Amino acid sequence: MTTPPIDTTQMPAAVQKAGPKAQQLYATALQFEQLLVTELAQQLQSTDGSTDGSSDSSSSDGTTALYQQMLPGALAQGITDAGGIGLAGELYQSLAGTLGAQAPAPAAPTTPSAPATPGAPAVQNAPGTQGTA
Questions:
Q1: Residue 105 counted as domain residue
Q2: What residues contact residue 42 under an 8 Å CB cut-off, 6+ apart?
Q3: Domain count of the chain?
Q4: 27 in a domain, yes or no?
């Protein structure tokens, strides 16, 4: 199975800014994610019960069988084109750290940890408690 080229305009901005090596690394992570989603979709399809050898006339059609073979790949491609399941970003961060790349992580939702006032210490309290600075 071959995967189509990755559209670099759909990569996270941080990866685009990091340069060609980071883009290649992210593209590889995205291709792995697509391969994994394809395998998962194939396993899901094999457990649906329609391939149990029954003599259903609709499943014996050659065209239907061809479409059933294409479905997991098309599903995986659609998921990848829509941004994936998030695995590619995690793989990218891990591989970039392992390879010593200075590529920034793709944007992810984070909670602010900086103090609201410059120079004031950041205090995080458990719900229902009051903290002291």
A1: no
A2: 72
A3: 1
A4: yes
